[in-house]
């Protein structure tokens, strides 16, 4: 369980950070420009973000979400759901081409390459990785995240160790020379919370939707949100301590690490580029998947098209994009966060917890049934079918959702040999078991009145 939570948390962190965070440009405009008041804002984010991330991933897991649209329609009114459903792709597309612009600035600042080279290379990487399935994309994003964290921590340690000024001095310099995103630190904090959640919300829902346990998905989201907000706080302090050296850089974090050692600066440039890649991939992959929902066969074509359009818009100045585009997206993100948190606190938290317990019970009973050393009885069958009936997913969906993890544990812990064909048929078998159980407990001639959820869905 811990390993799964860790991988979910790292994957979530990977899709949430982006060009602005990795480069330090967001920290500079949203926090450092307000001096030590900005650090207070980062502390507020440290409380809010983990809880919000937990909420988003739990929703994804509970509804087995393949896109954000299904979640929105399940928790809000149709009108609000449509606003959220259409607003998110538009805003995320804006985040996407800002990521590509950041990729160009990265290689330009470190290596002097033309802006279009870094952006074009990023487009090639995103298109290549986007041809993989969701699980492989999540694994890829989670796998590069530890390097990113290590590089950011190195910048923090260097800034603290080499600080030779005064706290009041850096505060006043930041207020005089900074470029604040909004009029005061509290509004900037609220706005950035919405922005940071918004940049990863669609891919986070998909990551949650690929994990059958809402509890594991939720704690993974909490861990990812905690990593993000903890690093945000540390980076805000580090950049404030060295604000006189980095306030006018497009990528202040990279400029800071480059002062440590030129070789480490090159490594940092590559690491920052990978962070940009992780968010750009999450944005364009989830956006392509959402737009292709009515035409599944055109999924890859639409993904390629939106990525190339984003490339065309990425030639605008990176710093200007962060300062003008991100605050607008941030307020839309605040609306989304308010709706998600509000519905979760009012009712969904209890419903999701109960659904998680049901899935644990279903999984335990199925493992019991697979074990040849145990005796399967009608009492077990009744308990299994009752839990399936009460689930928010249909029997076939549950079987397909639980199958891979279920059979993996059965093979590893009990040595049960299971063929790939048997694994792929679990959903159908669970559905048939439910149907047979209903029919055996229904008076003759009244089967039609008690169709199972699968029968009703297929009618």
Automatic annotation (TrEMBL):
It comes from the Bacteria. Keywords: Membrane, Transmembrane, Transmembrane helix. The keyword Transmembrane helix applies. The keyword Transmembrane helix applies. Residues 412-459 are annotated as: Disordered. The chain crosses the membrane at residues 34-57, 83-101, 113-132, 139-161, 185-207, 219-243, 263-288, 300-322, 328-348. Residues 440-451 have a biased composition (Polar residues). This is Sodium:solute symporter. It comes from Kocuria varians (Micrococcus varians). The lineage of its organism: Bacteria, Bacillati, Actinomycetota, Actinomycetes, Micrococcales.
